[in-house]
């Protein structure tokens, strides 16, 4: 028996009839030819989130982002005018990687007054302009103004830094749409305690997104993460999603949470104990300096406190 109200249609799949209910072909997730098309049609024509403004705390702060799926690297920098810009991380002289520390293929960050190519010493200002060419007189008809760093469209929404590799992108807010911008009032900048990890997933990006946004696997795959989750009655209960939504290229699922700080240790996952947090948020409520949060932060109201919203751009499916 469902514990939470479903749409009048009786299921979330029926709520979105355009999804259909038949088997889904995974040819688009295993075809190399299809993936090459995606590089051009999706990753080079969409706004991509590459970081947060907190990574650029002062003038001259920068970080690089490797976008292997688009076969490029970008450097994002806060200029002397406080404007955040992005450029292809490539020297205009011989096409070498411009900004790197110990290993060219690894991302890096720091603070500088200008970027200097490690190969021939060409220098670029933080606004991308080429300001110095080693032995400039040895070149024929060289105008430094013609050899600045190639800019990448860059914009910021609620502290999140986005780049777009296309020529004429739609405005960032239009791309994000109401599903994302409805949580604009959330005080992301006040969340100063962070935990992060990075993993290389050996799978097509759509398979990863599909797995990330379905909890059908949770009672089985995560059963051994805590003694409580391994109980037969917990696995038999399965999982219910509170809310699903599709809006253009974006999709969202909202789950219910609990009050982890009130639960015995055997009911928690090891990571939740280490970080004192979980899907339901931090155990120690942070002082965010606001009296209320945007309604969109919990689109499906329940009697239980907390919840987790997972919103991603990508394909939709009825699985």
Short descriptors:
8 helices, alpha+beta, 319 residues, 2 domains, Rieske Iron-sulfur Protein, elongated, three-stranded antiparallel sheet
Describe the overall structure:
By secondary structure, the protein is an alpha+beta fold. It has 2 domains: 12-25 and 202-313, no CATH class; 48-168, Rieske [2Fe-2S] iron-sulphur domain (Rieske Iron-sulfur Protein, 3-layer Sandwich), CATH 2.102.10. The chain has helices at 12-15, 27-30, 32-43, 172-181, 205-212, 218-221, 232-237, 270-275; strands at residues 48-52, 61-67, 72-78, 84-88, 109-111, 114-116, 123-125, 130-132, 151-157, 160-164, 243-247, 250-255, 277-278, 281-282, 308-313. Strands 1-10-9-4-3-2-5 form a 7-stranded antiparallel sheet, with no helix packed on it. Strands 6-7-8 form a 3-stranded antiparallel sheet, with no helix packed on it. Strands 11-12-15 form a 3-stranded antiparallel sheet, covered by helices on one side. Strand 7 (123-125) and strand 8 form a beta hairpin. The model is unreliable at 299-309 and 313-319 (pLDDT under 50).
Give a quick summary of the entry:
The chain is an alpha+beta fold and 319 residues long. The protein has helices at 12-15, 27-30, 32-43, 172-181, 205-212, 218-221, 232-237, 270-275; strands at residues 48-52, 61-67, 72-78, 84-88, 109-111, 114-116, 123-125, 130-132, 151-157, 160-164, 243-247, 250-255, 277-278, 281-282, 308-313. Helix content is 17%, strand content 22%.
Radius of gyration: 23 Å
**Number of structural units classed as domains:** 2
Q: How much β-strand is present in the residues? A: 15-25%
Helix proportion: 10-25%
| Count of individual helical segments | 8
Stretches with pLDDT under 50, minimum 5 residues: 299-309, 313-319
Structural class: alpha+beta
- Give the overall average pLDDT: 85
Q: What is the number of E strands?
A: 15
SSE string, helix = H, strand = E?
Answer: HHHEEEEEEEEEEHHHHEEHEEE
Rough shape? Answer: elongated
N- and C-termini, Cα separation: 20 Å
- What is the spatial order of strands in the main beta sheet? 1-10-9-4-3-2-5
Major sheet attributes: 7 strands, antiparallel
């Amino acid at each position: 028996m469902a514990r939470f109200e479903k749409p009048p249609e009786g299921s979330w799949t029926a709520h979105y009839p355009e999804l259909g209910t038949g088997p889904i072909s995974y040819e688009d997730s295993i075809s190399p030819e299809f993936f090459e098309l995606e590089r051009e049609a999706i990753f080079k024509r969409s706004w991509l989130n590459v970081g947060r403004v907190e990574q650029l705390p002062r003038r001259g702060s920068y970080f690089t982002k490797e976008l292997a799926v688009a076969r490029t690297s970008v450097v994002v920098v806060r200029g002397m005018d406080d404007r955040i810009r992005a450029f292809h991380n490539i020297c205009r002289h011989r096409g070498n990687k411009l900004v790197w520390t110990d290993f060219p293929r690894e991302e890096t960050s720091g603070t500088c007054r200008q970027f200097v190519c490690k190969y021939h010493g060409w220098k670029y200002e933080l606004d991308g302009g080429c300001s110095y060419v080693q032995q400039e007189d040895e070149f024929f008809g060289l105008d430094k103004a013609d050899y600045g760093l190639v800019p990448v469209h860059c914009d910021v929404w609620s502290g999140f830094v986005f780049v777009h590799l296309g020529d004429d992108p739609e405005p960032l807010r239009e791309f994000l749409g109401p599903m994302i911008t409805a949580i604009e009032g959330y005080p992301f900048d006040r969340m100063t305690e962070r935990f992060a990890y990075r993993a290389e997933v050996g799978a097509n990006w759509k398979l990863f997104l599909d797995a990330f946004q379905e909890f059908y696997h949770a009672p089985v795959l995560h059963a051994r993460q805590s003694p409580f989750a391994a109980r037969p009655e917990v696995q038999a209960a399965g999982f219910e999603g509170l809310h699903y939504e599709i809006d253009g290229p974006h999709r969202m699922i909202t789950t219910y949470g609990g009050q982890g700080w009130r639960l015995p240790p055997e009911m928690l996952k090891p990571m939740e104990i280490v970080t004192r947090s979980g899907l339901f948020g931090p155990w120690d409520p942070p002082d965010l300096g606001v009296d209320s949060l945007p309604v969109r932060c919990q689109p499906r109201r329940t009697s239980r406190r907390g919840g987790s919203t997972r919103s991603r751009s990508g394909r939709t499916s009825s699985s």
